[in-house]
């Protein structure tokens, strides 16, 4: 991270590019931080207390918070006079009602260890919700949708009135949809079985579920959907199974979220697979006509990885693609948070 920031700083100051004459022209730096638990629920100016809290949350997002912190510290070194702002993946899901974020385990575990659903990919879900409402001409505060972020990490969110009321990722980014290397939903009893009958340690199981499962674990080919699809097309049965499980899990969440949202305006696909996986979108939508979801195959191809609606005009629920722009969302949050801090001072 420090080496990367050195390269960035040098590029910004390069006379031939004419971008900056001094690093002090950088007012603020925005950082995506995955987990803030219940302590950090809004975008916030980073100080030592915030850094300590992010560190304390690292066990909840072990693949994400530590490198997030490394980036923060490198930025502070490279641009010592800039304000650093943490924008949390969990923040967009802060409006979930208690019945959606509580697990049915002893309540004292929530009180003592903060065990609950938090949700992630918040900047992505926030951006595509806002953009989809704009494209459909529906006021944001009245927009109801299911947003589906499909990449190496995958998640779905139930949006009512522009707010997230449920989401598939949980205490950690392991629950929910099938992902590149993460299992998503499994019976918790699998963990005990792997420990008791398979002789695996807790660390072994952690690595298995986070880094060796999902598309990679099922297919035995790759965590990259493009490579899995190529293998399936060549007759690899495990690759075919991985795709079918991936799609089936998405369809289950769509049904569940329509049940909790009620009137649903749109299903919005985003992320690398959501934006580029025309075949995956087609498989997800196939057979959902009884729910008012009617795919237009030609529109799906025309929209491609762009932006727009790919359902038929008679579809009660619109099918949409909205390319995510988490960087823009983070930049806006950083600007607003830094400006608010200056006004407060």
Summarize the structure.
With 345 residues, the chain is of the alpha/beta class. It has helices at 2-13, 48-56, 65-78, 98-101, 107-113, 122-136, 189-196, 202-211, 214-219, 225-233, 237-261, 271-276, 278-285, 297-303, 326-344; strands at 28-33, 44-45, 83-88, 145-150, 154-160, 163-167, 266-270, 308-309, 318-321. 46% of the residues lie in helices and 12% in strands.
Q: Can you put this structure into words, describing what you see?
A:
It is built from 15 helices and nine strands. It has 345 residues and is of the alpha/beta class. Strand 8 and strand 9 form a beta hairpin. Helix 1 packs across helix 3, helix 10 crosses helix 11 and helix 11 crosses helix 13. The mean pLDDT is 96.
Rg on CA atoms, Å: 21 Å
Overall outline: globular
Q: What structural class do helix, strand and pairing data support? A: alpha/beta
The topology string of helices and strands comes to HEEHHEHHHEEEHHHHHEHHHEEH
Mean pLDDT: 96
The low-confidence parts are none
Distance between the termini: 31 Å
Strand coverage percent:
5-15%
Widest sheet: strand ordering = 6-5-4-7-9-8
Helix content: 40-55%
Number of contiguous helices: 15
DSSP summary, beta strand count: 9
User: Main sheet, how many strands, which sense, barrel?
Assistant: 6 strands, mixed
